[in-house]
Amino acid sequence: MAVVPEHRRENLEPLLVTTGNPDSIVSKFPLLDSAITETLRLCALPGSVRVAGRDVEFPLDNGGSFRVSSVEMVMLDTRVHNMREDFYPEPRTFKADRFLPGKDDSTDIPKIMSWGGGPHVCKGKVFAHHVMMVWAVTFLQQYDFTTHDVLPEIDPGSWNVIADPAVDIAIDLTSQN
Ligand code: HEM
């Protein structure tokens, strides 16, 4: 978020539409781009359902196995991927810069599974990410905010792909105008 203030007085209009280079807002605010991906890594709940095309037997760590029969529906827990320690060191910690590209513009860090994957990957992911970027830039141009709360756990009763916090987070907002 530290990269945002220097762009505060800039005309946002060209960034609100995706004509031209749709990645323009991403390249202007790489830290915010990374912070949004990091938020989705931590807050997204499983949303990918598949139908088994044949009987499958999954081996379990305890020596047993878990059987899925043909045509049964399966929801994979994508959080197992998103919380992998070997992919994302200190996986429970929010690190805004975790997904920042390296000097050569590459990023070795594996993609998050919050959008699902394969042929049925979320078709709105570029749009949704873009809207979150525009919302955050617009918000930070208009308000300063602070919070004294520690980020809460996610609400286990959450029912959508983005989890709710277990308790409300108090935020002090100050308008810049
Ligand atoms: C933060 C916001 C969003 C998240 C986290 C999200 C996540 C997901 C996930 C996990 C799936 C299942 C993918 C899979 O089965 O592998 C999905 C599917 C889908 N999403 Fe999203 N989504 C979001 C916003 C949107 C928006 C804004 C749109 C449309 C404008 C959209 C359109 C779709 C469509 C059409 C599918 C079905 C794709 C298919 O079955 O081929 N999503 N989304």
Briefly, what is this?
This protein has 177 residues and is α+β, with helices and mostly antiparallel strands.
Write up what this structure looks like.
This protein has 177 residues and is of the alpha+beta class. The protein has a single domain, classed as Cytochrome p450. It is built from five helices and six strands. It has a two-stranded antiparallel sheet with strand order 1-4. The N terminus is likely disordered. The structure holds protoporphyrin IX containing FE.
Strand percentage, roughly?
A: 5-15%
Low-confidence stretches: 1-7
| Strand adjacency order, main sheet | 1-4
The percent of residues in helical segments reads: 25-40%
Corresponding CATH superfamily: Cytochrome P450
Globular, elongated, flat, extended or rod-shaped: what is the shape?
globular
The CATH architecture category equals Orthogonal Bundle
The major sheet is characterized as: 2 strands, antiparallel
Number of domains: 1
Each distinct ligand: protoporphyrin IX containing FE
Helix and strand element order: HHHEEEEHHEE
**Do you know the CATH topology?**
Cytochrome p450
What's the number of helices?
A: 5
Mean pLDDT: 86
N- and C-termini, Cα separation: 20 Å
Radius of gyration, whole Å: 19 Å
Query: Count the strands?
Result: 6
Instruction: Give the helix/strand class.
Output: alpha+beta
Any idea of the CATH class? Answer: Mainly Alpha
